[in-house]
Write a structure and sequence with these properties.
about 230 residues; single chain; binds 6-phosphogluconic acid; 7-stranded parallel β-sheet; Rossmann fold; 7 helices; alpha/beta; 3-stranded antiparallel β-sheet; globular
Length: about 230
């Protein structure tokens, strides 16, 4: 099920998204003493990550993961971990969270996917792993994470992480699979800008493999946060 929240503008959307992530973290810390969040890449979430520190009191038991990553060096501006470093971790959170960049992501994508899955299995005893918050982006074509339209990765039901040749450069990527993303306790999807209007409408039209983000809501609750400029009138 998709629940649409329309914020007045991009700043309001970023603040609302940061508040939702913080709520998920606080609930997890209160209930289990630990929080695992999977963050998205792309351009949209940068402002959310910049304002997130003022919403979270204590990062010491928070584990920061990625929902997907491009197979580039971590110092490459196209790296999703580089985005998280620049906008969130660089704010000198004290005590800091537990960082989980994708191991060896600038090497062989299949090996990086396997290494990331090993690290996940070391922290999550149950299958599929349940993140407390999964922050998802939305591509203009309806992709989310690095799950692209009609890609065979959408059929994966056993592996937690797969390597893909995506439709958006950098093309070589690793991504969490649908069973993992759907298992998150809180799925928040953030979309901004008129360019996302079609995708926002398509995501709400029911599960469709041509719109991978719509598959997230097939058996899970998703809050889709959009700014006024992107939400269909
Ligand atoms: C990535 C992201 C991807 C992104 C969408 C939207 O690695 O590219 O995880 O899923 O969220 O493509 O990207 P923008 O926020 O740049 O529009």
């Amino acid at each position: 099920m998709i629940h649409l929240t329309v914020a007045g503008d991009a700043d309001a959307a970023a603040r609302t998204t940061a508040q939702r992530i913080a709520e998920g973290i606080e609930e997890a810390l209160a209930q289990r003493g630990v929080a695992h969040i999977a963050l998205s890449g792309g351009d949209t979430p940068a402002d959310t990550y910049r304002v997130l520190p003022r919403c979270v009191r204590d990062w010491s038991n928070v584990h920061v993961w990625l929902g997907d990553e491009r197979c580039v060096p971590l110092d490459d501006p196209e790296s999703n971990w580089n985005l998280v470093e620049r906008t969130l971790l660089s704010q000198r959170l004290d005590p800091p969270p537990h960082p989980h960049p994708v191991p060896g992501v600038d090497g062989n994508p299949e090996q990086a996917a396997a290494a990331y899955e090993r690290e996940l299995r070391a922290h999550f005893p149950d299958a599929p792993p349940r993140f407390d918050v999964a922050l998802q982006g939305l591509g203009e074509d309806g992709h989310t994470a690095s799950l692209f339209p009609e890609d065979s990765a959408l059929e994966e039901r056993e592996r937690w992480v797969v390597a893909v040749h995506g439709a958006k450069p950098p093309f070589e990527r690793v991504t969490l699979t649908l069973p993992v993303l759907r298992a998150a306790r809180r799925i928040v999807m953030l979309a901004e800008g008129a360019g996302k209007a079609w995708a926002i409408g398509a995501v709400q039209s029911g599960p469709n493999p041509r719109v991978p983000a719509s598959l997230l809501a097939d058996g899970a609750e998703v809050e889709l946060i959009a700014d006024h400029g992107s939400a269909p009138s």
